[in-house]
């Protein structure tokens, strides 16, 4: 068994697609749009065949429930510490907020954490 995909609702679907394509080498499928509900989505595929679904619908706030527990971050393995450093620097230079690292964590992982355009935490690790 494997995880097929993770999905997140976003405000700006195109901006978020561009972010993941530009910095994480995602490949987007053709945009899906449901005219009845207003739902639009992209499935983003990565080299390891894991997919991230970006979803947007105009009435999301009408249906939103504040969650106290749940999603915290998506982690991308980039291969080695030099790649963690390079991608973190590239994102910082593009004015994305780096909120942690690069650093070695207390449990021995080398990582950084950045925020995507909508404030979701992205962990970049070996």
TrEMBL record:
Protein name as it appears in the record: Glyoxalase
Pfam families: Glyoxalase (PF00903)
Record-linked PANTHER family: GLYOXALASE_BLEOMYCIN RESISTANCE PROTEIN_DIOXYGENASE, LYASE, PUTATIVE-RELATED-RELATED
SUPFAM superfamilies, alphabetized: Glyoxalase/Bleomycin resistance protein/Dihydroxybiphenyl dioxygenase (SSF54593)
The organism's place on the tree of life at top rank: Bacteria
